[in-house]
Structures are given as C-alpha cells and as structure tokens.
C-alpha cells in the first residue's frame, strides 16, 4: 500500500470514529472501511490461495507413493506393493498392483464383514483407475479380473470398490495363483455410472477389456 493511500485510510478511520460517536449506522461505517481492509490484505491473498491449491492436490494424488508419505495409520503400517501392469483407455489410466494380502472389511450399509485371506492367497490385487491427465481416482465403475496361465483360467472374480489410507480409492480382492510364472490378465472395466462434467463427455460409455501380462514370483 503506498503512502498516499495509507494517509487516506487513516483519515477515513478518524471520520468513522466521529460518525459512530454521533450515532451513525454501523453499516455505513463498515462500508467506508471496506476499501482499506481489502487493500491491507492484497499482498497476502495470492500466497494463501497457492497454499490451499497445493494441499488439495497433495490429498488427491495418493496413488503408489502414498505409502512413503504416511508412516502409519492407527498403528497400521503400509504394506509393500509390486506393479504388475499398466494400460490407458480413452484417457483413463489403468494400473494393476499386487500387495501382501491382509484382512479387509466389506460394509453393506448396516454392518461390516471381515474378509481374511486364505492360507493359499498369493497377493491382494489392486486395480487403480485414474484420470491420466490429473491423476485423480475415478469412482463409480466396476472391475472384473480374469487371470489365465497357459490358456487355463486360474482366477475369475470381481474387484471390490475399496478405500485405503495408503493407496487411495481402488478396486481390489485377494488372488490365489498356482505358483510362479507368466500370467495373462483380462480386466473388464464397466463405465463409471455417474453424472459427468463436459470434459468426460463421450468417453467410457461401454464396457472395455484391458488385456495385460505379468510375471509372478512367489515370496518364500
């Protein structure tokens, strides 16, 4: 704020005190002071806005790096993950990752049901659907995973919509494979069932299959 404007604001504040003393309305006085108040805050506003934007973006990009940012949640530590495959469909980034299987809970709207991994579980499969341009997770879709080895189906299950403090929203389920080796995985992705802003017009309107291959080495 320049010297001339400071002098003007000081004069206005003195006039306001006089008006209040003579019984002028508070609204009239506040209107007079509004210009000075906004000028006082001009230099700090852009910094505050930039800080808010940075924080919101950090919260929204929780993908594969989230585990390194969060040490533990309620005493639960992050579990290592292994990338399996990646593909892109009409601007949707599709990632398949494996993590050590741990119990998870299914909530049906009234109660929680715990799902414990069987002894023969190979890994917990996670399928991440993200906007390829922004990295923002895409909800309201559905994913079905079919895994084959040498042409034979060894896994054919739905992926639960899931939330995680480390991996963010994703679709997942436990997987049991008959040992290590090369596998072919088909992910049937149904379109997100939701209202869409204009940037998502005419994309993801029909079910789509993403076919990928991966090599699995069991952990001793």
Give a brief rundown of this model.
By secondary structure, the protein is α+β, with helices and mostly antiparallel strands. Helix content is 25%, strand content 35%.
Show the helix and strand layout.
Elements: H1 3-21, H2 26-41, H3 45-60, H4 66-69, E1 81-89, E2 92-99, E3 104-107, E4 112-115, E5 123-131, E6 142-149, E7 152-162, E8 170-175, E9 181-190, E10 208-216
Antiparallel strand pairs: 1-2, 2-5, 3-4, 5-8, 6-7, 6-9, 7-8, 9-10
Helix pairs in contact: 1-2
What brief labels describe this structure?
220 residues, 10 strands, alpha+beta, Immunoglobulin-like, globular, 35% strand
Shape: globular
| SSE sequence, one letter per element | HHHHEEEEEEEEEE
Q: What structural class do you assign from the helix and strand content?
A: alpha+beta
Structural Rg: 28 Å
Number of separate domains? 2
Strand content: 35-45%
**Which CATH C-level class of the largest domain is it?**
Mainly Beta
Kindly state the number of beta strands: 10
Low-confidence stretches: 19-68
CATH architecture tag of the largest domain: Sandwich
Largest sheet: 8 strands, antiparallel
How far apart the termini lie comes to: 68 Å
Mean of the pLDDT scores? 75
CATH superfamily of the largest domain: Periplasmic metal-binding protein Tp34-type
Percent of residues in helices: 25-40%
- CATH fold field value of the largest domain: Immunoglobulin-like
Number of helices: 4
Strand order of the largest sheet: 1-2-5-8-7-6-9-10
């Amino acid at each position: 704020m320049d010297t001339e404007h400071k002098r003007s604001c000081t004069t206005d504040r003195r006039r306001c005190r006089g008006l209040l003393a003579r019984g002028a309305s508070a609204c009239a006085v506040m209107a007079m002071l509004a210009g000075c108040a906004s000028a006082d805050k001009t230099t700090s506003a852009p910094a505050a806005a930039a800080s808010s934007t940075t924080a919101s973006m950090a919260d929204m990009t929780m993908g594969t790096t989230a585990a390194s940012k969060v040490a533990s949640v309620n005493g639960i530590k992050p579990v290592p993950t292994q990338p399996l495959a990646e593909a892109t469909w009409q601007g949707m980034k599709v990632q398949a990752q494996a993590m050590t299987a741990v119990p998870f809970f299914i909530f049906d709207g009234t109660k929680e049901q715990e799902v414990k991994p069987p002894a023969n579980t190979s890994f917990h499969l996670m399928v991440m659907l993200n906007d390829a341009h922004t990295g923002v997770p895409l909800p309201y879709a559905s994913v079905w995973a079919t895994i084959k080895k040498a042409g034979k189906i060894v896994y054919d299950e739905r992926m639960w919509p899931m939330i995680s403090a480390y991996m963010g929203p994703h679709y997942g389920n436990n997987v049991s494979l008959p040992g290590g080796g090369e596998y072919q995985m088909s992910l049937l992705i149904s379109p997100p069932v939701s209202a869409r802003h204009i940037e998502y017009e005419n994309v993801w309107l029909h079910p789509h299959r993403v076919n990928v291959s991966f090599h699995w080495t069991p952990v001793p």
